[in-house]
Amino acid sequence: MSTEITMPKLSDTMTEGRLIAWKKSVGDWVERGDIIAEVETDKANMELEAFSAGVLLEIRVKSGEMVPVGTVIGIVGDAGEKVAEGVGAQPAQAAAETRQPPTAEPSPAEAAVGVVPERIMEPPEETAAAASIAEGGEKASPLVRRLAREKGIDLAQVTASGPEGRILQEDLERYQEARGARSEERGEGEKALVSAGAIQPLSRMRAAIARTVSDAWQSIPHFTVTVAIDMGEAENVYRELKGAGAMVSLNDVIIKAAAMVLQKFPLANASFAADGIVLHDEVNIGFAVSLDDGLLVPVIKGCGGLSLMEIAARSRELIERARGGTIAEADISGGTFSVSNLGMFGVEEFSAIIHPPQGAILAVGAVQDEAVVKGGQVVAARVMRATLSADHRLIDGAYAARFMAELKRVLENPVAMLV
Predict the structure, then answer these.
(1) What range(s) does the Peripheral subunit-binding (PSBD) domain occupy (predicted)?
(2) pLDDT by residue (tens digit) across 304-355?
């Protein structure tokens, strides 16, 4: 019996993927777990493994093609088996066949945030404005619709080349090139007053970052709370650990402190969904890692149950994978809270954009020498400013203030982190 190979959904934001190369040819024998193809997601290049053994009977998507998630890209079956023309799962059905570990099928609310929540709190009644309205009758992924809006393209004018008349990103590019050629024919009179410089095409990573932050900024009502934290004791602990040979960074100390505080403030570790507030049972903290062409946010899973040394080891491992290009989708998904640290660049303070479907992110500045008043005396202190960006649909100002006050208390009294 034949088995369909589909384009997997490898991240919460992935709507389509590019097949970079096939590692097997038609007629080759495939064992379960063999690498059969390499695909490009919106975040990284990933290897696609076979779910079942058999002969690769058909290749339906060529190398270099971009197709929607769930599209059948190949067929594996018995030698000599005939595959009927047109057989293949629809994208909506096939999307379930991904290379993710088997899990219980999530409800629509769970799928919206990419996790299986333990508890859901009912939110206030939603207004009619919150309802989603489809744009036109053209078949296109959310990504393509967004790009069309940004570029001012009417999808009804675009010739589709995808499966079942679906408009692909390449169709938009061809339409835009044709439109640009027509504009050039209008003559010099319509040239811009200021000539533009060279246009650098967006990498897949930069395009994914652009989509994510744009959507987050437009859809999440952000507000920020900043506190100044005396990091003198935390730095002492950090230096003592380093002196004892421990491979730990100050950012690891901050992540550990955040994990402790998040267990006391569950709304800061929650996600807003259409039908409720998703309270995550685990504390999974993402931390930003800068790369040459953008950034990745690896996630340390189960931070609430990890020691400082365990967090440091996991952080170091994820940074090496991210910068070495070997990070897996599982390592950059499933986050419930994030930390972004620009202190190493001398940044005093900043606010960060929340990473959906998370409800908050902590922005950390540099630790600097400042004069402060203690016991009526002006003394030197090592001060760090930290800013919480929070989703106002989940968190009110007073709750965020209490969260930051507790974070300040933990970092200024770091002994508890070593227990």
Answers:
(1) 139-176
(2) 999 999 999 999 999 998 888 888 888 999 999 999 999 999 999 999 999 9
Task: In whole angstroms, give the CA distance from residue 94 to residue 67.
Answer: 13
For every residue of 268-291, DSSP letters joined together read GGEEEETTEEEE-SS--EEE-EEE
Domain 3-94 has CATH 3.20.20.210: no
Locate tokens 């993927």: which residue? 17
- Nearest Cα neighbor of 229 from 408, 362, 349 is 408
Q: Which of 231, 248, 270 is nearest to 384 (CA)?
A: 231
Distance CA 82, CA 65 (A): 25
Q: State the CATH class of domain 222-418.
A: alpha beta
Which CATH architecture best describes the domain 136-178?
A: Irregular (4.10)
Alpha-carbon distance of 176 to 170, in angstroms, equals 10
Known catalytic residues? 392
- Determine how β-strand 276-279 pairs with β-strand 3-6: unpaired
Q: Where are the domains of the chain?
A: 3-94, 136-178, 222-418
Label residue 267 by pLDDT band (50, 70, 90). Answer: very high
SS3 content of the chain, % helix, strand, coil (to 5): 35, 25, 40
Rounded to two decimals, the pTM is 0.62
- Which residues is 234 bridged to in the sheet? none
Least confident of 143-147, 368-372, 384-388: 143-147
- Give pLDDT tens digits for 353-380: 999 999 999 999 999 999 999 889 999 9
> E strands within 188-302?
222-230, 270-273, 276-279, 285-287, 289-291, 294-296, 299-300
Name the one residue in this structure whose structure tokens are 């393509």. Answer: 144
| Tokens, residue 257 | 């402190």
| List of residues 6+ apart from 142 with CB closer than 8 A | 15
